Each structure stands twice: as structure tokens, then as C-alpha cells.
Amino acid sequence: MYLFAGLIPSILGFALVPIYTRFLTPSDYGVIAIISVIVFTIRPFVLMGTSRMLEVEYFKLEKENVSKLVGFSILNSLVISIILFCLFVVARNWVNEVLFHNEINNINWLLFIPLVAFGFAINSIGSILFRNSQNSKAYFLVSFGKSFLEHALGLLLIVTLFFAWQGKMLGIVVSSVFSLIVIIIYLIRTNKVSFSISFFKDKLSIYKSVIPLLVMDISILGIESSDRLFISIMSEEGTSAAGVYSIAYLIGGAVVYIINAFTNVFSPEVFELLALKTEKAKQIIVKRFYSFFLATLGIATLISLSKSVIFDYFIGPDFYAGIELVSLIAFSFVFQVMFLLGYNICMYRGKSKLPSRISVLAFILNAVLNYVLIKTMGVKGAAVSTLITYAFMGLATLFISQLLIKLPWFYFLKSDN
């Protein structure tokens, strides 16, 4: 069910690309892409790493303390969202000028960004609780309902009322508020949240424990998003170039849909098998990894081979220039499977600083490569930068994790005797 719940919303959004690319211009898509980049960049600050801490501590804490941790996470996210809203009130003109080249006529649209980020934060908290409590039905309904509402409203406004990027933006805002309200109501009715701040005797220690996770989240989201910012700022076409790149990223990034769906099954199983501390359990982890990796590699290969068909029949002609970027982007995400296993092992051993440091190095590498390669190669440089960065991050994290727990990668070559 978790696999299905993870795939359906992604497939829904992917399937509607042919409609969006025929009613929206590259510039419209570029505006939405940059807004999404900002949302996903500030989301780690809104969460402050508390969602990852909740994921790790869920099975260690008593039920009452879990509810207090959930309450703290929500209040923490709310306060930071309000602060960010105030910052956007002050800086919205600057943001519009630098990132959007003054293409947003009504800059008050930018004030919705902290609200959307807060909605995503609460959705992350709810998803962790649904998954860890094995409430697959609620996980699916919220995930699918949010995605369906976003695209249904967006399409209604764009296709029938001829809204531009504003139609898709309203779909994102309304669906974020929907999921936020549903999850809060669920948490209150099931007594899974308690707003008892007194539980945290030393609040500073709470933040200290999540700083490595926060740094990692910011670095990873920076890697995932900074390419569009660099393109928008450095390219002569501005948001139009960012829009073309975003469509190529969406097609090549379909690999991520598979990764995210399998992660809901793979990560909990890795933690469970590591806890057994047996050689047989380690062999099962290796088997699962090989299957996961080969499935991801197969999807990336399929996307690369079929990209011409996808662009010829499903994507609007204004976005065709992105076809040369798809393969680079698709194979970039294959390395995420390596990072995922390495990250899980590090987290199991309580070494969150290791993947955090690697992600920071990867972010710096990505920023340098983006600047140099976009300047010399154009938009294609961003895709090359993405491939190199993810390869480094995946291989480095997996290598470091093997210094903590060595897995039997070639167990099948050993004789049973």
C-alpha cells in the first residue's frame, strides 16, 4: 500500500504534463519552478530537522513522549513559518527582481510561500506517523487527496479560466492547506499530539541533536534546487530557460518516483534487519539493495531510451530543447539508492554527522560546478553538475557507512561449505 501510495500522486502529476506544457509557457513553468525551489529550500528551516528526529526516535520513545515531540515539531514549524512570512513581506521586491526578473506583477503572491512550506512540513510529520503506525489507508488518502486537489484545481483554473502560472500556484496553496488541516485534525482526534513544551527540559539540546539533520536537509535540497536558480539568474532566457529545464528534470526525475515509493518499504526494513545483527540479515540487506538499484537503473535506462517518444507525443513544442538533458538527469538519481542505504546505516549507528558532512561537501561541489558549467555549457551544464554531484554523494556515503557496518557484498561467491 505504501508503494502504491507513493507512486499514484507522482504518476498523476507526470501524466498531466502534456496538458500543462500546452497551456503554460516556458516562462510560466519557470516561475512555478523557482517558487517550488524556494519552498523546498526553506522547508528544512521550517522543520528544523524535527521530522527526521521523529522518524528515528519514534520507536524509542514512549507513546506520550512521541505525542509531545509531535507537538513540539508543529509549534516549532509554525513559529519559524511566521518569521519567514515577515521576512518575505520585507524582501519580496528583492526576490522578484533577482530571481524572477520582475515577471511577477503582483508580488503578494510570494507571501503564500511560507504557508505552503508550513503545509509541506506538517505533511512530512503526518506521513512519518502514518507510516510508522502502519496506517497505510490514511497515508494513501492524504497523499492522493492532496495531489488530486492540487492538479484538479490547477487544471480547472488553467484550462477553463485561462489562468497562467497563478492557476497552478493556487492549486499548490489550496492542497497544502487541505493536507495541513486534515493531518492536524487526525492528530488531535487520535491523541497523537500534545502541546506540552515543558517536556523539553533542555531545548538547546533538542536543537543540537537535529542540527546535523537540518544541515543535511538544506544541503540535499540545495543540490536538488539550486540548478534552476543558477539557470534563472545566469541564463539570458531567465525563467523560460528554467521552465524548459524543469520539464526535462520532471521527465528524467521520474526515477525519483520509484525511489520514493520503494523507500517507504526499503528504509524500515533496513533498520529492522540491522537490529538483528546477524550475517543472514546483512545478506538480505545486500539482496534488497541490488534489487532496488537494478530496478532504478532499469527505469533510468527506459526513460533515456524513450525520451524522444515522450517529447514528440506528450510534451509541448516550446519545451523540446530539454530533450538532451533527460538522460543525464535520469542516471543522476540512480546514485540516490547508494546514498539511501549509506544514510540508513549511519543513522542506525547514531552517526548522523557523517552523511551531513558529505552532503555539505556535495552542495559546495554542486554550486561550483553549476556556476562553471552553466557559464561554459549553458543549461546542459546544470544537468552534468547534477550527475557528478549525486555520483559523489552516493558513492561517498555508501563507502563511509561500510566503515561502520561492513556488508557482505559478494556473499554469493562464498561456498556454503
Helices and strands in order, then pairings?
Elements: H1 2-15, H2 17-23, H3 26-47, H4 50-57, H5 63-99, H6 112-132, H7 136-160, H8 165-189, H9 203-234, H10 239-252, H11 254-276, H12 279-313, H13 326-332, H14 336-348, H15 353-377, H16 380-401
Helix pairs in contact: 1-7, 1-11, 3-5, 3-6, 3-9, 3-10, 4-5, 5-6, 6-7, 6-8, 7-8, 9-10, 9-15, 9-16, 10-13, 11-12, 11-14, 12-13, 13-16, 14-16, 15-16
Characterise the protein shown here.
This protein is 79% helix and 0% strand. It is mainly α. It is globular, with a radius of gyration of 21 Å.
> Structural class given helices, strands, pairing?
mainly alpha
Q: How far do the termini sit from each other?
A: 40 Å
Overall morphology: globular
Series of secondary-structure elements, N-terminal to C-terminal: HHHHHHHHHHHHHHHH
> Which runs of at least 5 residues are low in confidence (pLDDT < 50)?
none
- Rounded average pLDDT: 85
How can the largest sheet be summarized? none
Helix content: over 70%
Number of strands: 0
% residues in beta strands: under 5%
Rg calculated over all Cα atoms: 21 Å
How many helices? The count is 16
Keywords summarizing the entry:
single chain, 417 residues, mainly alpha
Outline of the structure:
This protein has 417 residues and is mainly α.
